[in-house]
Amino acid sequence: MSASEVESAQPVTEKSPSPVEETDPNKVFVGNLPYDTTEDQLKALTPELEVVSVELPTRTVTKKTDQTTVELQKGHGFIVYKSSEDAAKAIELIGGKTVGEREVYARAALPPSLAPKRERKPKKTAQRSAASSASGKMKKKSKAKAKTESKPSGSESDAKTDSKEASPADQSESTSAESSAPVKKARKPVLSKEEKQKKLSEGVPSKTTLFLGNLDKSVTSKDLKELFAEYEPVWIRVPRRELPKNLYLKLKARNVQIDNKGIAFVRFKSEEDQQKALKEFENKEYKNRKLNVTVAIDSAAEAAAQASSEGKENE
């Protein structure tokens, strides 16, 4: 018998009587049983305890298709033990066990008047569904009518359009809005290896900045500020690994540290501080890595700017 036939069947008579009104302390209720559970399966739930009897209540139902009757289990059963102590143990033992593919549960057997009842949602009848669909259609029609009534006529719409076109204030507002739109920043061109080498060859050794190579990927500018604290660096840059913008924003939102490129630049107040730091940290180990510390190369433009600033200071 299929599940749909079971659901559509009408109960006629009860084969097994309901539990007696008096509570039996030796009796245990077992719920969520498959509809084909056997008495042996019920007894096997507590093999360590002595079972007096088992009961699998059934009901007689009539199929609507051919009006034949069939006996079906109710999906629960009762086990009677020798003592109330065994019944209490059985409730603990049965909880979480499975019969077939169902996880069953147990509790003390109660009279029908005290047993908890499942709340079933009322089925939607054809009359109710028709009424709801009709009311839905009426709502849609009323909304469409309201929109039509609120829509301005052609002459009114044209008049409004003409007034807008003739209004200089509106034109100025639209122009200002267009001008205030955000402009995307142009990306820096990516230099090839040859172009980078050429840039370095055209540059000049810096008088204040050191280049650090072979850094641990987790090093931050804060770490380097502490490392060179004795020489009071004025500027530190630790380039991070390049990532897609969306990935970078996700990692930043989650406070995930992004690895650096393994290099850094540290600028000092004077050439004297730069040279002292170079001597101290050249080939020094930091975070289990031997640092590659050299004088940084400034571009020709940077060198010229620095020279002009030094000249102004000396005047």
TrEMBL record:
UniProt keyword annotations, A-Z: Nucleus, Repeat, RNA-binding
Chain spans, region Disordered: 1-27, 107-207
Biased composition (Basic and acidic residues): 157-167, 191-201
GO molecular function (one): mRNA binding
Subcellular localization, as worded in the UniProt entry: Nucleus
InterPro entries cross-referenced by the UniProt entry: Nucleotide-bd_a/b_plait_sf, RBD_domain_sf, RRM_dom, RRM_MRD1_RNA_proc_ribogen
Taxonomic superkingdom: Eukaryota
Name of the protein in its database record: Uncharacterized protein
Organism: Ogataea polymorpha
